[in-house]
């Protein structure tokens, strides 16, 4: 469950990005956050992911504040609008790392993803297009079997076939695992 209570965020340069935002996303709920560029969507997701702490107000992910909270982060997947993946790594090597970090990691789920996504698990990520890197981030993230999914502009750079695949995987995942999902998009 995601709860945001009266969250405010002003950047150092004075930009007032969030002005007292409150909402709840229950387990098994899917929420799309839609709005024009600059409306604060990415700021909001970074606060939910515990990248930033709100200036005031509270954020609770399954009852706990996410900022500098390893326990919350182990059960959350956040894909930012510009996901960074080590350029010399491959999907398979990152999977080994994720397996050791995320207690919910599912080898079965990861193996299924290799059959579904049209990317090589042995190619260097730095040699992949943005859309392919995003696919890698999505399938690795879902393989951690998160309780909270935060995706920023997730469909950017994905072709229509992969976009439909990701939508279906998310719907199935939420139906089976009862995760709470928030997806931000300008479109
Ligand atoms: P969105 O994701 O909806 O496009 P953002 O959350 O990225 O919106 O931005 C909201 C506002 O905060 C914008 O006015 C943007 O310029 C500003 N902003 C975002 N990140 C920073 C930052 N690191 N420093 C200063 N201002 C920022
Ligand atoms: Mg954004």
SSE layout and pairing:
Elements: E1 2-10, E2 16-25, E3 30-34, H1 41-49, E4 56-61, H2 70-74, E5 76-79, H3 91-101, H4 107-116, H5 130-143, E6 148-152, H6 160-177, E7 180-185
Bound molecules: adenosine-5'-diphosphate and magnesium ion (MG).
Describe the structure.
- The protein is of the alpha/beta class and 187 residues long.
- Helices cover 36% and strands 24% of the residues.
- It has six helices and seven strands.
- It has helices at residues 41-49, 70-74, 91-101, 107-116, 130-143, 160-177; strands at residues 2-10, 16-25, 30-34, 56-61, 76-79, 148-152, 180-185.
- The strands form two sheets. Strands 3-7-6-5 form a four-stranded parallel sheet, with helices on both faces.
- Helix 6 (160-177) links the parallel strand 6 (148-152) and strand 7.
- It starts with a strand and ends with a strand.
- The structure holds adenosine-5'-diphosphate and magnesium ion (MG).
- The site of magnesium ion has 4 residues, from helix 1.
Low-confidence stretches: none
Question: How would you spell out the order of helices and strands?
Answer: EEEHEHEHHHEHE
Spatial arrangement of strands, main beta sheet: 3-7-6-5
Secondary structure: number of strands: 7
Ligand list: adenosine-5'-diphosphate, magnesium ion
How is the main sheet built? 4 strands, parallel
- Proportion of residues in β-strands: 15-25%
Mean pLDDT across every amino acid position: 96
* Range of helix content: 25-40%
Task: Count the DSSP helices.
Answer: 6
Structural class: alpha/beta
The best one-word shape is: globular
How large, in whole angstroms, is the Cα Rg?
Answer: 16 Å
């Amino acid at each position: 469950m995601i709860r945001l209570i009266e969250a405010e965020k002003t950047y150092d340069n004075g930009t007032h990005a969030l002005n007292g935002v409150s909402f709840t996303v229950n387990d098994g709920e899917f929420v799309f956050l839609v709005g024009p560029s600059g409306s604060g969507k990415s700021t909001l997701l970074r606060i939910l992911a515990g990248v930033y702490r709100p200036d005031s107000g509270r954020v609770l992910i399954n009852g706990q504040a996410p900022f500098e909270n390893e326990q919350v982060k182990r059960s959350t997947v956040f894909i930012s609008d510009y996901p960074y993946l080590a350029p010399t790594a491959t999907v398979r090597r990152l999977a080994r790392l994720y397996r050791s970090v995320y207690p919910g990691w599912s080898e079965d789920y990861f193996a299924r993803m290799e059959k579904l996504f049209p990317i090589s698990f042995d190619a260097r990520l730095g040699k992949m297009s943005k859309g392919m890197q995003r696919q890698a981030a999505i399938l690795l993230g879902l393989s951690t079997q998160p309780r909270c999914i935060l995706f920023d502009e997730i469909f950017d750079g994905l072709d229509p076939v992969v976009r439909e695949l990701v939508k279906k995987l998310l719907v199935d995942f939420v139906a089976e695992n009862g995760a709470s999902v928030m997806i931000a998009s300008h479109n």
